[in-house]
Amino acid sequence: MAVTKPSKPGKRPKNPEGRMSLKEHLAELRYRVVVSTVALVLATVGGWFLVHPVLENLIIQPLAEASAHGQKVTLTYRAIADAFNIQVKVAVYIGIVISSPVWLYQFWAFITPGLTKKERRTSLWFVAFAVPLFLSGVWLAILVLPKAVAFGAEFALEGSLNQPDAQTVITFASRLMIALGVAFLMPLVLIGLNMMGLVSGRNMGKYWRIAVFCAFLFAAIVSPSPDASQMILMALPLVGLYVVSVFVALFNDRRRARKRRNDPVFGLSDDESSPLASDDEPIDRP
């Protein structure tokens, strides 16, 4: 007589189809949120020690260079607690960047519980590419930001006192970094849609002009200065990533078509019958 081993307390038995009830989905979501939050808090604590170098290189030094060219630029705080609040805000944004490998993986792990073992292995490539792409977008914003700060400060009238609000400057800088980091993840979204069969590589290549226009439009909106060179610097990587995603999608389409030719059952849904089966064949009875 076979004896069934009792499951461990608090551990959900594996479902081969990857299906979960609403309660299990909520428990899974809570677990992913808790892990991401803990990682963010720990990264924010570490980011606190990087606040001064970050502010010095990205904000203070460019303003000092603008002052050296004859502009009187002074960073101001509107309230007594603004200096502390700004440091906390910068530490949180640093924590978001540092903990990005953790929360990106947790996000992907939550939305893919119903995938097969092979698909889950493939999904790990999402995190492997998402992290460097997100950090590349942040790095591009870091390259553009100092020149943009100095560029904006030089527009003050001669003899006037330029006193930018520290809260406004920090908020603008952090939003620019997050926006470019997220924008660099768009190729992964397109490739994911292609792998799910929602968009083909041929259609992606067909609308390349619209993609290029959207890339330059996005760069023009988030560009911190009207300098055309900075807009081009921000748009070209986005265009390049789109081109790469088109080639990856075309390769995946060819691979899927080749597999469909070799295996007629490939790509059929659960309610479709195989073309190898014939309704005219007699049914064997015992």
Automatic annotation (TrEMBL):
<comment type="subunit">
    <text>The Tat system comprises two distinct complexes: a TatABC complex, containing multiple copies of TatA, TatB and TatC subunits, and a separate TatA complex, containing only TatA subunits. Substrates initially bind to the TatABC complex, which probably triggers association of the separate TatA complex to form the active translocon.</text>
</comment>
<feature type="region of interest" description="Disordered">
    <location>
        <begin position="264"/>
        <end position="286"/>
    </location>
</feature>
<feature type="transmembrane region" description="Helical">
    <location>
        <begin position="123"/>
        <end position="149"/>
    </location>
</feature>
<dbReference type="Pfam" id="PF00902">
    <property type="entry name" value="TatC"/>
</dbReference>
<feature type="compositionally biased region" description="Acidic residues">
    <location>
        <begin position="269"/>
        <end position="286"/>
    </location>
</feature>
<keyword id="KW-1003">Cell membrane</keyword>
<keyword id="KW-0813">Transport</keyword>
<keyword id="KW-0812">Transmembrane</keyword>
<feature type="transmembrane region" description="Helical">
    <location>
        <begin position="231"/>
        <end position="251"/>
    </location>
</feature>
<dbReference type="GO" id="GO:0009977">
    <property type="term" value="F:proton motive force dependent protein transmembrane transporter activity"/>
</dbReference>
<dbReference type="GO" id="GO:0033281">
    <property type="term" value="C:TAT protein transport complex"/>
</dbReference>
<feature type="transmembrane region" description="Helical">
    <location>
        <begin position="29"/>
        <end position="51"/>
    </location>
</feature>
<dbReference type="GO" id="GO:0065002">
    <property type="term" value="P:intracellular protein transmembrane transport"/>
</dbReference>
<comment type="similarity">
    <text>Belongs to the TatC family.</text>
</comment>
<dbReference type="InterPro" id="IPR002033">
    <property type="entry name" value="TatC"/>
</dbReference>
<feature type="transmembrane region" description="Helical">
    <location>
        <begin position="207"/>
        <end position="225"/>
    </location>
</feature>
<feature type="transmembrane region" description="Helical">
    <location>
        <begin position="90"/>
        <end position="111"/>
    </location>
</feature>
<dbReference type="GO" id="GO:0043953">
    <property type="term" value="P:protein transport by the Tat complex"/>
</dbReference>
<keyword id="KW-0653">Protein transport</keyword>
<keyword id="KW-0472">Membrane</keyword>
<comment type="function">
    <text>Part of the twin-arginine translocation (Tat) system that transports large folded proteins containing a characteristic twin-arginine motif in their signal peptide across membranes. Together with TatB, TatC is part of a receptor directly interacting with Tat signal peptides.</text>
</comment>
<feature type="transmembrane region" description="Helical">
    <location>
        <begin position="169"/>
        <end position="195"/>
    </location>
</feature>
<keyword id="KW-1133">Transmembrane helix</keyword>
<protein>
    <recommendedName>
        <fullName>Sec-independent protein translocase protein TatC</fullName>
    </recommendedName>
</protein>
<keyword id="KW-0811">Translocation</keyword>
